Amino acid sequence: MATKQDILEQLVEEYLIHQGYFVQHNIKYRPDKHRPDYDSKKDSNYSDIDVIGFHPSRSDKKKVLAVSCKSWQNGLNPNYWKNKIEKDEKVGGKDAWKTFRELANEKWSEAFVMKVREVTGEKNFTHVTAVTRLNGEKEIWENHKPFQEALDGIPVEILTLQKMVKQIQKNLTTTLARTEVGRLLQVFLAAKIKLWYSDNSEFEYSLWILRSLKFSARLNKCISSHVLTHFLVAGQICSSILDRIRFLEG
C-alpha cells in the first residue's frame, strides 16, 4: 500500500487499480554500462520509472503502462517542452531533455524500454506522462515521432489529473481505498463534499461544506491529522488548478 508516495503517484495508482491494473512504484534503471557511449560520470546514477501498471487480462499495448509523473503546479505545456528538447536548451538551469530523458536520449530510452520489458515480461507497452494540468494540445506530445522512435515504436500518451479523479469518483465504493488520496476522496463523499468540473479544460474543485460547528465536529471525527496533512500537500500541488472554494450553508 502506498503511503509515502508523491500525491500524483498515489492518484495514478488509485486510477490504475480501478482500471484493473496491478501496480509497482519507483523501478530504477540506467543505461547499459557496455554501450560505447556510456559515461560513468553522467550515466552511473539511477533514474526511476514512477509507476508501472500491469493488466492481467488485456492483450493490447495498454496491457502495460509505464507512467512518468510530473506534479508541476503550472501543468505541462507540450509545445514548450518539445521545443526546448529539440533545441537542446535549458529549463531552470537544467538541460530540458533530462526532465524527459527516456523520451529524448537514446541510451536512456533503451534502458527504459529494457527495464519495462524485464519487469513485466511484455514487449509492447504504452508510455504515459501523468500531469496535473494540460496546457495546450496533447497531440503535439503524443504524435511527436522522435519520442516514439526513441522508445522503439512504443506509443506515448498524456494522462491528466482531471481525468483520473473523474474516473476514481465513478468507481469509489465503501470498501477502503488502496491509497491515502483514494481514502480522502471517500471521506469527501461521506462528508457530502461535492467535487465538480467545469466544461473547459480547467479542473475545478467546489467544496460544499456546512459551516456549522456540528458539521465541523463530525468532520474532525472522520479525518485524522495524518490525512489532513496529505490533503494540505495535495492542495499545494493542485493550487494552480484549484479555481475556487465555495462554502454554502445547508
Secondary structure blueprint with pairings:
Elements: H1 7-18, E1 22-29, H2 40-43, E2 47-54, E3 64-70, H3 78-86, E4 90-91, E5 94-95, H4 96-99, H5 101-104, H6 106-120, E6 126-131, H7 138-142, H8 145-150, E7 156-160, H9 161-171, H10 180-190, H11 213-222, H12 225-237
Helix pairs in contact: 1-9
Question: Care to describe what's here?
Answer:
The chain is α/β, with parallel strands linked by helices. It has two domains: 7-162, 3-Layer(aba) Sandwich (Trna Endonuclease, Chain: A, domain 1), CATH 3.40.1350; 175-237, no CATH class. The protein is built from twelve helices and seven strands. It has helices at 7-18, 40-43, 78-86, 96-99, 101-104, 106-120, 138-142, 145-150, 161-171, 180-190, 213-222, 225-237, and strands at residues 22-29, 47-54, 64-70, 90-91, 94-95, 126-131, 156-160. A hairpin with a 2-residue loop joins β4 (90-91) and β5 (94-95). α1 (7-18) crosses α9. The chain is globular, with a radius of gyration of 20 Å. The two termini are 36 Å apart.
Keywords:
five-stranded mixed β-sheet; 12 helices; 42% helix; Trna Endonuclease, Chain: A, domain 1; 250 residues; two-stranded antiparallel sheet; 2 domains; alpha/beta
In short:
The protein has 250 residues and is α/β, with parallel strands linked by helices. Helices cover 42% and strands 15% of the residues. It folds into 2 domains: 7-162, Trna Endonuclease, Chain: A, domain 1 (3-Layer(aba) Sandwich); 175-237, no CATH class.
